[in-house]
Specification:
It contains 5 helices and 8 strands, in the order E-H-E-H-H-E-E-H-E-E-E-H-E. It is α/β, with parallel strands linked by helices and about 210 residues long. The strands form 2 sheets. A 5-stranded parallel β-sheet has the order 3-2-4-5-6, with helices on both faces. A 3-stranded antiparallel β-sheet has the order 1-8-7.
């Protein structure tokens, strides 16, 4: 079983009681939990167990999702230690749109002690949209090691791909228009779990 998370998410100073106002909630806490449990089982089935698995969460919200997935994996395979499976992969300096968002905060990249060489790396992100974040993640991985395979798990796939990138594991396929925004909230950073669709522009979760 898990010996506890290797990372601690910094929670928001307060949860806005009106955070869901004007938004359409498409996933709540139970649905997100079920989606992550299903993805964990799919990962184990596809890879014939959890040996040599590494989960790399893409900050901000991909990291707590990766930690939860690791707990789900360890719950199914007691020999796995959740904290040993998870790393954090910051892709800020690898993005091709950095010139348009020069004030992006640079996060931390932290790999499990075992590294990624020869491992099956599962990238974990909250929303898959254009695919540019994942391309940046692949470039970042190439500078860190040589995994045996790289797979992608996304809580939400909202379509509108600009690059030929497809997730291996999806919590929910969510058809959207390009004028809409998908926002993912996680309890570790936002005080609550939810996937929202809204018309107003927002930075969080929109990729």
């Amino acid at each position: 079983m898990s010996s506890g998370p290797a990372f601690e998410a910094t929670p928001s100073t307060a949860t806005d009681p009106n955070a869901l106002a004007g938004s359409r909630v498409v996933l709540g806490t139970p649905e997100i939990a079920r989606a992550l449990t299903r993805i964990a089982h799919e990962i184990l089935e596809r890879n014939k167990g959890g040996a040599d698995l590494v989960l790399l969460g893409i900050p901000t919200r991909g990291l707590p999702l990766a930690l939860r997935l690791a707990d789900c994996l360890a719950a199914v395979e007691p020999d796995l230690v959740a904290a040993d499976l998870v790393g954090s992969l910051d892709v800020t300096m690898y993005r091709d749109d950095l010139h348009r968002h020069p004030t992006r905060t640079i996060g931390a990249t932290r790999l499990p002690a075992s590294g990624i060489d020869g491992k099956v790396v599962v990238l974990v992100d909250d929303v898959l949209y254009s695919g540019r974040t994942i391309r940046a993640a692949l470039d970042a991985i190439s500078d860190l090691g040589r995994p045996r395979a790289v797979q992608l798990a996304a809580l939400v796939d909202r379509g509108h791909r600009e690059l030929p990138i497809r997730p291996d594991y999806v919590g929910k396929n969510l058809p959207t228009s390009q004028s809409e925004r998908v926002r993912v909230l996680v309890a570790e950073t936002d005080g609550q779990d939810a996937v929202l669709i809204e018309d107003a522009p927002t930075e969080a979760g929109a990729r």
